[in-house]
User: What shape does this take?
Amino acid sequence: MLYLGEKDILEAAGFDELMDTIEDAYFVEHSGEYEMPPRVHVNNGDNTVLYMPCFLNSIFGTKILTLFPGNASKHKPVIQGLVLLNDVETGRPLAIIDGAKLTAVRTGAVGGVGIRHTASISARTLGLVGAGVQGFHQVLFACRARPVARVNLFDSITEKASALAAKLGQALPGVSVEAVNDVNTLLEGSEIVITATPAAKPVLPDDKALLKGKHYLAIGSYKPDMRELPASLYALVDKVFIDTGHGLGESGDLITPLQQNWISREQIVTFAEHLHGAQTAIRPGETTLFKSVGMALFDIVLAELIYRKALQKNIGQKIRV
Assistant: This one.
């Protein structure tokens, strides 16, 4: 069996290859050639454990993830976990993969694919609200999906935004990265806006004039009582793109707008449907929204890619079982 840690994951496959594989996953979803039981949420106070199995024709696996929001104040990762890959014919364990890093890479790749297909091709400026691990990876993939020249960062903890700005500045040579003092400034200077927070209330102002004409990528809300987006944003979009239909019952950024009739169910389009339908070009000045909650299919498709590439490159630590 192979163990693949954070560095192994990054060495195994590049950003473009990871995004291409996520696009392939949407075709797998559309074909129905997989089995993905509903993911199991176990809540203990503010803490959550997720169990996410998925079976493909070539492999199967399970991601076990912990989400402990209080870890931020303890200077520990909010998201931790492992992915177990198994041989599809015998059930033999093949690999254990760092679940936190795989989640960050998967979520970044999903966001990058969303930007590829629903953000203006001319977008050169990016704003990120939420300076955590997920936000870091979102920016990296976004800058592969579009030739971003400037990144604006905001976090309610100023020190976190400044630290992430420095880290991204090193990772993205040639891109101007700056921590800004407020969300309004971020909106005024950004064509693509990413929200990556565990917020219970919207982190963007309820102001159509500030919100209009941008692409929004929201990844933070994974529970019904979590919501990053204001009501005014839904009045500006014709469609809400989602990465999986499961989000309709999980995310407050979908549940609340439907309950309050800010949008209709007909306006919500899964990305698999979008990629297989008659896609229309994004109009200049159009406001677009992509909401991501993730699903095990993405994790296992990427885990298989990383595992196969690691074998080819002789990456990882072999474990006797």
